[in-house]
Amino acid sequence: MQLSTRTKILHITIAFTMIFLLIIGIYMSETETFSLYPLHKSIGVIVFLFTAFRVLTRIREGWPKVIGNASKIQLAMAKIVHWGLITLTVLYPVSGMMMSGGGGHGITVFGLELLASNHDDISGKTIALNETISSIGHNLHETLVPVLILLIVIHVAGALKHHFFDKDKTITRMFSFK
Ligand code: HEM
Ligand code: HEM
């Protein structure tokens, strides 16, 4: 089974953007580098459009059929990891927007204001639009970090196993555009 060009372009774009935002997100919140927040949020909102389109693509085209003979356990693992990853690629931007939008910090994409911040000029404080939405978003964004990292590690390890041990075309099929 060949993969559609759309599947391959969406995979490569979303995969590298998610890894980039994961690294930048951990770095900026650990070191409190607030100057990176607008970049993180802007790319995150844009990647959401790609992830939504990818979900529609999976509904229309189905999932890639596994190459070679895989055991039932391997098939189940691949299914769980693919479902987990695609879910997190949607949950991450959504929870980010809930956290920032609900928290009153606003949502801006490279200077284009999608949701204004709710800043009180007199007290100098940012007032949340909806505390509950904001804290659900924050909790999801924070607690899912180890889950996302674990899924990516298992996923990449599985892909490398296909390439170097099984010596099949799983990786080349996904990354070649000939
Ligand atoms: C950079 C290292 C990565 C490699 C080498 C890689 C490799 C692959 C390969 C070979 C497939 C096809 C599997 C098959 O044919 O059964 C695949 C599918 C998939 N990958 Fe990755 N991947 C990487 C990163 C990621 C990341 C970071 C994510 C998400 C956060 C991701 C999400 C997915 C999903 C959801 C699928 C299912 C098919 C689709 O919707 O595109 N991958 N990956
Ligand atoms: C699309 C994929 C995204 C990924 C993979 C991602 C990932 C992350 C990660 C890993 C962190 C660090 C969490 C921690 O260690 O506490 C973080 C922080 C943050 N993200 Fe995202 N993010 C994404 C999208 C977004 C979006 C769309 C927004 C808002 C519009 C956003 C807003 C934030 C904010 C404000 C923080 C800092 C939270 C804090 O200071 O506690 N993110 N992100």
Mean pLDDT: 96
Strand order of the largest sheet: 1-2
The structural domain count equals 1
CATH fold-level topology: Fumarate Reductase Cytochrome B subunit
What helical percentage do the residues reach? 55-70%
Tally of helical segments: 6
SSE run: HHHEEEEHHH
The hetero compounds bound to this protein are: protoporphyrin IX containing FE
- What CATH architecture do you see? Up-down Bundle
Which structural category do the helix and sheet elements fall into? mainly alpha
In total, the number of strands is 4
Largest sheet: 2 strands, antiparallel
Distance between the termini: 15 Å
Radius of gyration: 19 Å
Strand content: 5-15%
Q: Which consecutive residue ranges, at least 5 long each, have pLDDT under 50?
A: none
InterPro entries: Cyt_b561_bac/Ni-Hgenase (IPR011577), Cytochrome_b561_oxidase (IPR052168), Di-haem_cyt_TM (IPR016174)
Main location: membrane
Domain Cytochrome b561 bacterial/Ni-hydrogenase: 4-176
Pfam families: Ni_hydr_CYTB
Description of the structure:
This protein has 178 residues and is mainly alpha-helical. The chain has a single domain (5-175), classed as Up-down Bundle (Fumarate Reductase Cytochrome B subunit), CATH 1.20.950. Helix content is 69%, strand content 6%. It has six helices and four strands. It has helices spanning 5-31, 37-61, 72-102, 131-143, 145-164, 170-175; strands at residues 107-109, 112-115, 119-120, 125-126. Strands 1-2 form a two-stranded antiparallel ribbon. Strands 3-4 form a two-stranded antiparallel sheet. Strand 1 and strand 2 (112-115) form a beta hairpin. Helix 3 (72-102) runs antiparallel to helix 4 (131-143). The model has no long low-confidence stretch (mean pLDDT 96). One of its GO terms (cellular component) is plasma membrane. Belongs to the cytochrome b561 family. Its cofactor is heme b. It holds the Pfam family Ni_hydr_CYTB. Keywords: Cell membrane, Electron transport, Heme, Iron, Membrane, Metal-binding, Transmembrane, Transmembrane helix, Transport.
